[in-house]
Backbone:
């Protein structure tokens, strides 16, 4: 069984609570899923790590960790992902953390680890407590390239291979956890894809993931290492051979967020005669207009120094934290100003049906990946398969859109409707975006305010946001 970012553990009642809270723009009882980045300490130094600018030498002390787990459990937490700025298994009291999660019946949905610190004892815990998924960030096919990618001594490569074998052995015939090896590819190792596949398959894992190394915050990666559109021709024969070898088992999950590469891979699949495997289905009830993020009602991430972040994709030095668990409880933060601001921004995207351009002046917390359709892989992977959830969400959002996105209403409601219209009609948007039109709109809004307030008070015709 693979991880689902906790979604498989959420009851239908809690999903309805999320939908109702989106409609009402209120917080839910608490996070149903949490990413616990227990420590910023790490035993490798991957050159492509997207959290290196956030990393400290801190970890959440065991007493604080147990208090945090207890508090989250009391408000309905069902699952956690253990990942982070450091390796989660490098936390000094990781065995105690895992034991306390089991005591509170909280599912470990995912452990993302380099595997160096995965002992037999930890493997036995993960199997016994039915952890859903363990992803090993292997990234290389031999010790030399491992040292290049992870910036460590080559000998650690063999230690990781042993850890993977140990978990496979301890798991035996159980389906828990699903075991994944992940390889990140750059221009130095892309021609070794076949070797990577063969190594992973020999280890007996359930999924073999291959992805491109991507740029990280503040452009720290040497761009000569990043795969380019023109490298698709170089990679094509290796992609084809890997797909041929995988055609009888369907272990491969291969994705490249590089322009033009998907076209190449589609052509290769047609030649090999395989369909895309290990992908994530979409329910018939899903509509693109409901593609907006709802994580502000669902989850939170806590880092090794206690900072609370929106999610793993916004673990970015340019995104300020939503608070810190050392200042006040996570429940207080969940109902606090920063989380509510994030909910406001997410709800505006949902009300507009995703028809909104990203503007950093408008969005103080959300980033482009949260607003622009198709950029967030979390939404694309785990949630769109839920037929009942998206049917109910669509029905309730359509009802609230009729009330809050309209031509006749308050200035905020009219502005939403205007934004959607201009999104659908870019030529009109270009025509009216000049300064003269902006000044005209401001004048009409300001000069008509007394009349709108009077209509609201005397005839109960609500055309104003004013009290």
Residues:
């Amino acid at each position: 069984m693979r991880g689902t970012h906790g979604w498989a553990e959420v009851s239908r009642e809690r999903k309805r609570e999320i939908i109702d809270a989106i409609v009402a723009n209120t917080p839910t009882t608490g996070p149903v899923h949490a990413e616990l980045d227990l420590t910023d300490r790490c035993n490798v130094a991957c050159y492509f790590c997207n959290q290196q600018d956030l990393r400290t030498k801190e970890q959440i002390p065991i007493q604080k960790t147990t208090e945090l787990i207890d508090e989250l459990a009391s408000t309905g937490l069902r699952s956690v992902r253990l990942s982070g700025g450091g390796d989660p298994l490098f936390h000094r009291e990781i065995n105690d953390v895992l034991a306390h999660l089991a005591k509170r019946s909280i599912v470990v949905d995912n452990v993302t680890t380099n595997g160096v610190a995965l002992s037999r004892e930890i493997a036995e815990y993960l199997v016994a407590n039915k952890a859903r998924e363990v992803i090993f960030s292997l990234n290389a096919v031999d010790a030399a390239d491992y040292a290049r990618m992870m910036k460590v001594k080559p000998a650690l490569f063999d230690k990781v291979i042993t850890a993977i074998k140990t978990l496979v052995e301890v798991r035996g015939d159980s389906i828990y956890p699903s075991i994944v090896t992940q390889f990140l590819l750059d221009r130095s190792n892309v021609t070794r894809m076949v070797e990577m596949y063969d190594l992973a398959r020999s280890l007996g894992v359930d999924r073999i993931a291959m992805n491109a190394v991507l740029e990280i915050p503040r452009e720290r990666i040497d761009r000569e290492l990043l795969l380019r559109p023109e490298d698709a021709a170089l990679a094509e024969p290796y992609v084809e051979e890997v797909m041929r070898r995988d055609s009888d088992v369907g272990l491969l999950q291969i994705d490249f967020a590089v322009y033009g590469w998907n076209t190449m891979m589609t052509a290769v699949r047609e030649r090999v005669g395989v369909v895309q495997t290990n992908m994530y289905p979409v329910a018939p009830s899903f509509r693109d207009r409901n593609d907006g993020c709802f994580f502000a009602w669902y989850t939170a991430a806590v880092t090794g120094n206690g900072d609370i972040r929106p999610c793993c994709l916004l673990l970015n030095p340019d995104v300020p934290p939503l608070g810190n668990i050392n200042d006040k409880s996570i429940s207080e933060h969940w109902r606090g100003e920063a989380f509510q601001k994030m909910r406001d921004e997410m709800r505006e995207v949902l009300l507009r049906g995703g028809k909104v351009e990203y503007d950093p002046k408008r969005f103080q917390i959300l980033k482009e990946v949260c607003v622009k359709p198709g950029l967030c892989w979390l939404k694309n992977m785990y949630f769109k398969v839920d037929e009942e959830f998206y049917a109910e969400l669509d029905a309730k959002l359509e009802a609230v859109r009729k009330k809050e996105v309209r031509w006749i209403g308050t200035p905020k409601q009219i502005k939403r409707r205007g934004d959607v219209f201009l999104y659908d009609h870019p030529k009109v948007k270009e025509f009216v975006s000049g300064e003269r039109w902006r000044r005209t709109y401001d004048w009409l809004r300001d000069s008509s305010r007394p009349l709108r307030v009077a209509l609201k008070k005397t005839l109960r015709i609500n055309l104003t946001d004013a009290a």
